[in-house]
Amino acid sequence: MRRFLLLVGLVGALAAAGCARTPLPTTSSSSRLDSLQSENATLRTRLRRVEDSLALRKDVDTGQHYRDLRTLEDRLNRLTYEARTLRDGGRTVRVLPADSLFELGTATLTAAGEKRLRAVTAHLQAAYPRRTVWVEGHADDTPLSEDLQKQFTSNWELSAARATTVVRHLIENSDVDPAQFVAVGYGATDPVASNKTARGRRRNRRVRIAVLPPPR
Fold it and tell me: Which CATH number is associated with domain 91-211?
């Protein structure tokens, strides 16, 4: 019995000694660990900033920084130009008064109109052989007469027919791929002058020929 009590006492002493050598983490030590980890993260961030600064200084010294900046600026300018050009319906090549191209109230080209379009065709073929050609027909807001309404329901249809006639003429008189042409009729929806005067209405009756930016 005495030997059993001694063994129990010895085990208890060893257990107490073991606990004394490996204490459980306290609140203060946990806070210190958090503080060290936070400081470590801060120092790593500062180190990265210093490294980035040194790399930038090296690029500046070698001129690479300015070359990269110029490349980005050129790219941005190009994208801005393309966006503006597409928004505006392409780069204008010619704006031709409809009265100088067509017989009154029709989509039939006059002899003078065909001559003017031949000059445009030659220019498009020489300068923009692989670009999409955008042809717009525009009209004033004067209602069509009953006779004209037998052929065209509205100014919108008249403007679309005139744009189509111009496209057909350009295709037939050039080697440009027909798939590169687009005909669009705007009717009286996009005036460039007031429709309250005869001069303004003449300006609004027009055909605009443009080229779109090349596909990327």
Answer: 3.30.1330.60
Do residues 139 and 155 touch, judged by C-beta distance below 8 A? yes
Domain boundaries, the chain: 59-88, 91-211
- Cα 144 from chain centre: 39
* Of 169, 179, 195, residue with least CA distance to 110: 169
Taking the CB of residue 30, how many other CB atoms lie within 10 A of it? 10
pLDDT of residue 48: 75
**Beta-carbon neighbour count of residue 84 at 10 Å?**
11
Mean pLDDT computed over every residue of the chain:
77
Nearest of 195, 190, 203, 102 to residue 151 by alpha carbon: 102
Neighbouring-strand partners of residue 208:
95, 136
pLDDT at residue 79 tops 90: no
CA 29 and chain centroid, separation: 57
pLDDT given for residue 212 in this prediction: 83
Q: What is the DSSP string of 72-111?
A: HHHHHHHHHHHHHHHHTTSEEEEEEEGGGTB-TTSSPBPH
